[in-house]
Amino acid sequence: MNNKDNAVALITGASSGIGLVTAKALQKAGYRVFGTSRRALANVDGITMLTCDVTDETSVKNMVAEVLKQAGRIDLLVNNAGIGLLGGAEESSTAQAQALFDVNVFGITRVNNAVLPTMRNQRKGRIVNISSLLGLIPAPYNALYAATKHAVEGYSESLDHELRTFGIRVILVEPAFTRTAFEASITKPDQPLAVYDSVRASMAVVMRNGVSAGDAPEVVADTVLKAATAAVPKRRYTAGKQAGQVRFLRRFMPEALVDKSLRKVNQLPIV
């Protein structure tokens, strides 16, 4: 993937934040870039914007067909579309949990399934799935969101093994807190319980402060570009210093210390 002449990149959720910044970075690096958004948007900075709802299989198939009609190939797919949910795990109905998985997990599955026949015929391609640091660690009051990212991690590792014989690699990029509007647009639980009101509000402040002090989205974009162009890519790339530190601590620190540290960072009582 080092030769980007005529290489075509497709990135979902490219209307703002990490997705838009990554699309611009790929375009600057020489890719012909197609981005998607749920609502129609004008093209920006050489990026062709297409409408796509990743929860709608027909919408996904039509979008991929349009990319192939215009470009004839897809060399890089970046699955970035996703939504968040902040609240106690029992504060969300099953329907709300399913809706979260429909975007964050099955949305990736739909797009991959639509793109893979082309990549297999090309005998090459690269898929970068945007995961999260919360795909590696527990996340109190983000349990369902973290569950979607843990699912993406397992799915991606398994899919990578299945596709290597076709010249396709699947890679995970794991950001920590990133300075985007993600926190401002996060979903609230649909069946809130008064017993969680205080700590939920406290966790919202923790998240807000984390986002404010987090990495610039360009850090994630640079990591995606590295994953996309590495001759021999790693299975996963942490994006930013904080994500790398937490991954290291999760791997090598005793579980009890990780548990205590996580509760302290999230301002929860050490019990």
UniProtKB/TrEMBL annotation:
Superkingdom of this protein's organism: Bacteria
Swiss-Prot/TrEMBL keywords: Oxidoreductase
Residue intervals passing through the bilayer: none
Domain Ketoreductase, first and last residues per copy: 7-198
InterPro entries in the cross-refs: KR_dom (IPR057326), NAD(P)-bd_dom_sf (IPR036291), SDR_fam (IPR002347), SDR_oxidoreductase (IPR051911)
Coiled-coil intervals: none
Entry's family note: Belongs to the short-chain dehydrogenases/reductases (SDR) family.
Name of protein: Oxidoreductase
The organism of origin for this protein: Methylomonas subterranea
